[in-house]
């Protein structure tokens, strides 16, 4: 079922809950790929009913970002959702989600400043606002987020904890193309040449991971290793290379607890992200 | 029933909802008076079950405010709640409500700057945070707030709307002592002499209201009228006298729509507030 209003979602979810059914929820910006499908399939396997939202959220884009250009294809998205087993797809217009005089802000301070937040100052405030709203509208038992957006996942977990929201946040592994590129709706922006160059993200992370598994613990050396790999790719320009505590997202100097190794790299004009979490046994 | 943990509240409310019962909720800081009782009684009359929270919320007090001194008496409060028909009283410790590393903020910008927000910069952020949490814990059908805290009521209504929280916010009229003083837990701070002086709040507002009913529309004249009345009381010192749009809380120059006439006055060291909403027919 494809619906466009908050009212329709609420009515359907209330009817399910009245029957005692559990509800899983997958928030997306649409233009769905295998990464999203893996989230939906996990939600389907763990809940009686699954809601997917498809909404390119204006409040999480900065003024010079790609809100207008972000790819959209609701018919294809709806087909993928249905095929993956979702029961309800919620595709609201911005006007359905936001009042013109909205003035409420939700922020997870401390986790939102570094990494992607450094160059995208309004981004995570917009994410927190829209995810709060969707969680309040869908009232799921579980909500599924990709680990590719590692900072987003950490922030949402913290927000849900701090606001006592009654939902379990489930992180799901990154899904990659056969050659290792992390799936992203923004991969569609890449030319054929850039598509090849984009492999440098996963290649540099794989190199760092191997070195860490071999015992490398010095963060500046890990960073240098990633940086030099990226520099060898002429079409690539690193935005950030960060090794941080996997929960607090605070920088560390050496790897003495679980860390998130996260990078953002421009391939031509397209900014891509990738990461892995390194767990001390 | 008196409970102290989030878990107990959630379990009880879920059991009620499973039976199809509606839930009303009254948030308080305790030291309950007839004003609170009127909220609880209204909640009881409109819902199958009623939850009252009693929690002196540290995050809504500024560093030099009266958090430590704020009066507390949970046994008396519990008796009043039960007598008024409440089914569950939730009295958490601060540690139950807040993690030491909490870093999520909720703000209703635009409505929080003026009036009480001008001198209490962290106050409404703290209110929004704690009310968000309580609404997420109690998940009531309706929540009841006193009109005495008019700015708080406007902010909570806006927050609930902007975050798509599925709850009806119900405002309830100010309850007054026989001589007109608005009921407040802080009235207990007043000496006998100050108690008499405190009548100037209601007296000055009543005068303004009468003049407005007689046709006075110029805001600066209304303000002068209130100010001169307060100045005649030697123990009183006005903190603010504001005439604002009743919804947006933005200042107006003349009364051409519904306005909130709100004052804060120091009586000795005790800061009291009062207000009325003037509706154009």
From TrEMBL, chains A, B:
<dbReference type="GO" id="GO:0015940">
    <property type="term" value="P:pantothenate biosynthetic process"/>
</dbReference>
<keyword id="KW-0067">ATP-binding</keyword>
<dbReference type="InterPro" id="IPR004821">
    <property type="entry name" value="Cyt_trans-like"/>
</dbReference>
<keyword id="KW-0963">Cytoplasm</keyword>
<comment type="function">
    <text>Catalyzes the condensation of pantoate with beta-alanine in an ATP-dependent reaction via a pantoyl-adenylate intermediate.</text>
</comment>
<comment type="similarity">
    <text>Belongs to the pantothenate synthetase family.</text>
</comment>
<feature type="active site" description="Proton donor">
    <location>
        <position position="36"/>
    </location>
</feature>
<feature type="binding site">
    <location>
        <begin position="183"/>
        <end position="186"/>
    </location>
    <ligand>
        <name>ATP</name>
    </ligand>
</feature>
<feature type="binding site">
    <location>
        <begin position="146"/>
        <end position="149"/>
    </location>
    <ligand>
        <name>ATP</name>
    </ligand>
</feature>
<dbReference type="Pfam" id="PF02569">
    <property type="entry name" value="Pantoate_ligase"/>
</dbReference>
<dbReference type="InterPro" id="IPR014729">
    <property type="entry name" value="Rossmann-like_a/b/a_fold"/>
</dbReference>
<keyword id="KW-0436">Ligase</keyword>
<feature type="binding site">
    <location>
        <begin position="29"/>
        <end position="36"/>
    </location>
    <ligand>
        <name>ATP</name>
    </ligand>
</feature>
<comment type="pathway">
    <text>Cofactor biosynthesis; (R)-pantothenate biosynthesis; (R)-pantothenate from (R)-pantoate and beta-alanine: step 1/1.</text>
</comment>
<dbReference type="InterPro" id="IPR003721">
    <property type="entry name" value="Pantoate_ligase"/>
</dbReference>
<comment type="subunit">
    <text>Homodimer.</text>
</comment>
<dbReference type="GO" id="GO:0004592">
    <property type="term" value="F:pantoate-beta-alanine ligase activity"/>
</dbReference>
<protein>
    <recommendedName>
        <fullName>Pantothenate synthetase</fullName>
        <ecNumber>6.3.2.1</ecNumber>
    </recommendedName>
</protein>
<dbReference type="InterPro" id="IPR042176">
    <property type="entry name" value="Pantoate_ligase_C"/>
</dbReference>
<keyword id="KW-0547">Nucleotide-binding</keyword>
<dbReference type="GO" id="GO:0005524">
    <property type="term" value="F:ATP binding"/>
</dbReference>
<dbReference type="GO" id="GO:0005829">
    <property type="term" value="C:cytosol"/>
</dbReference>
<keyword id="KW-0566">Pantothenate biosynthesis</keyword>
<feature type="binding site">
    <location>
        <position position="60"/>
    </location>
    <ligand>
        <name>(R)-pantoate</name>
    </ligand>
</feature>
<feature type="binding site">
    <location>
        <position position="175"/>
    </location>
    <ligand>
        <name>ATP</name>
    </ligand>
</feature>
<feature type="binding site">
    <location>
        <position position="152"/>
    </location>
    <ligand>
        <name>(R)-pantoate</name>
    </ligand>
</feature>
<feature type="binding site">
    <location>
        <position position="60"/>
    </location>
    <ligand>
        <name>beta-alanine</name>
    </ligand>
</feature>
